[in-house]
Every structure is written in C-alpha cells, then in structure tokens.
Amino acid sequence: MVLRVVEWSTGTVGRDAIAGIDAHPDLELIGVWVSDPAKVGRDAGRLAGLDRDLGVIATDDADALLDLKPDAIVHTAMTDDRLMEAIEDLKRFLRAGIDVVSSGPVILQFPYGVVPDELITPIAEAAREGGASLHVNGIDPGFANDVLPLTVTSLSRSIDEVRCLEIADYSTYYQPVVMSKIFGFGQPMDGESLFAHPGVASLGWGSVVRQLAAGLGLTLDEPLVERVERVAADRDYSTVSVDIPEGTLAALHFEVAGQVDGVDRVVLEHYTRTHPDQCPHWPTPDHGAGCYRVVVRGEPEMSVELSHHGRDGDHNVSGMIVTAMRLVNSVPAVIAAAPGIVTALDLPLVTGRGLVAGADARA
C-alpha cells in the first residue's frame, strides 16, 4: 500500500526530503507546506531542485493540508529558534491522527530525563488522542549516535566507554541561524551566543547520551557533564553562512558526558572547524572533510567511521540528504508503531528498501 505524505517546509533538509519521498516506491507526495510567500504556488519538484514538475503545488494553508488526511507528515521546518511553536505544530498534527517524522526539536529524539515531564506529557497525550506516532531523528542527533553505536556494541564482550564523535569542517554548511546565533561563530569570544550558556550542549545532545545509556542499561550520574573548548580565529575566514573576523569564534570542541560513579561511560563529542586549516592538533577524518566516528573501548576495542559526501563532493550537502532520508525511510515503520513518542529504541530495522536503482522492491 502506498502511503500518502505531506512535506512540511522546503529548506535545506526539506528539499532533499521532497526528492526522497518522490524516489521512494511506497510513498506518495500529496502536499507541501511553505512559510515563504514567494514559494506559494510553485511546484514541489522545482522547489526541490529536481528540474521537473511533480504536480504538487506548495501552499501556506496548513488547514488545507491537514484536510487531505495524509498518512504521515515529514516535518523538516526550523525548530532551533522556535521551540515551543514547533511543539505546538507537532501536537496539532498528532491530534489530527497524522503520524510524524521530524528533524526537530532534537530534544524529542529521546526526551526522557532531558526535558520536564510537563513538556513531554502533552505531546504524548496528543499522540494518544489522535492514535498517531512522533519520531524525531536525522543523522546527528540521530543515526550516527543512536542506531550506529548501539549496533556496534552488539559485538562487545565488555564495555568501558562508548564515544560518538562528529569531526567536520562547517565552512560550506548553510545554516546562518545555527552558525551565528546558536554556535556563535564570527561572534566575539565573550559574546552571548546561545551555546555560550551552560546547559545548552546538554539540552541539544543530552538526548543522545541518555538514549545510549538506556540502550546499554545504564543509570547515569546527574547532571550530565559538559566540556567546551572555544578557539579564536587566527585570521579572517569566510563561510557560506557567516563571516568570521580575526579574533572571533572560529572553532568549537565540546563534549556531553554521561558518567557512572564519576567515570565517563557514554560521551557525545564534536570537533567543529570553519576552515580545514584550523586546530591541526584536533582529530581529523580518515576520508574527506567530515565524518562520524564511534569508538567503543572495552573488549574488544572497536572504531567505526562513517563518512559521506554528495556527488559534488561536499559533505555538508550530503549531510542534508542523510538527515532527510533517515526520516523519509522511517515513515513506514513509524506509521506501524504504537501511538506515542517513538525513539530509535522502539523501531525495527530501517533500510533503504526500494531505492536500489533498477530494482523492484515492491515484490
């Protein structure tokens, strides 16, 4: 049975989600929501950069899209700077009986112990009321630090520490709000970016640490431990999102650690450069300009590196694709799941079924 899907937004991830829904043999795109008035009335295929029409016209009429009664919404709208508004949108979809896969808010990837119950409960109630499910995921937070590391640990005899790293050059990462207002790149070293405040790293990536701990059966010390290293620009840099004058924030290394009896057991770690020449003493990918790395210390010692890049060679472009496709490919499993907030621990194996060129996966 083909599942009818609405795509919610056509930004950097949404464009790839449209292309992914169109490519998936078990999904049918029936509607697209946009916030930009200039996009209203345009064909989804053109908004996705497909150079062909899909016969689906973008609209900013949310009610009209909900009236279509889709099986699922792929929600890729920006949530980092409109957290509560985004949660209200998700609750509305769920109450309407529509299953949702979403790229954010990332705190809902695994919200338990990350946000208060009074924030989680209304979402779960909306899901029960509508008989629908919500799954928040992507690549990071998402596959690179939930399914991938937990799968690697299935090979372990004993585990001392699980560490998930992102090592990346963000110079071609187009997210001006994230780069400037959240991380603070290009801002004074003593500036008031969101990330400069204690607790923000745990809010953004604590869900990763807590979900891994749940998957490993650990009870963590409270609170999670944050470690942040900020590096000033040694000269002027320019990225696609923000200019970085000399002396302003140019590189960021942070850790969010879950400890047991004061010992690190589960760690999420990012090494973020805005130019490949920065911080040569930091780890670098084995291949390309960006990677996700899982290191499991114990018996045996294991390390797995996931690198990706688009056909144009850019890992930040492919980063949007893998984020979108983790959501798109999860749609059938999320629809089949019990109503409520669905995490990676709740889903069966999600694959690229139906996407092999020239193969008929419907058989």
TrEMBL record:
Keywords: Kinase, Transferase. CDD domains: nat-AmDH_N_like (cd24146). Pfam families: DAP_DH_C. One of its GO terms (molecular function) is kinase activity. It comes from the Bacteria. InterPro entries: DAP_DH_C, NAD(P)-bd_dom_sf. Gene3D superfamilies: NAD(P)-binding Rossmann-like Domain. The keyword DNA damage does not apply. Residues 145-351 form the 2,4-diaminopentanoate dehydrogenase C-terminal domain. This is Diacylglycerol kinase. It comes from Gordonia iterans.
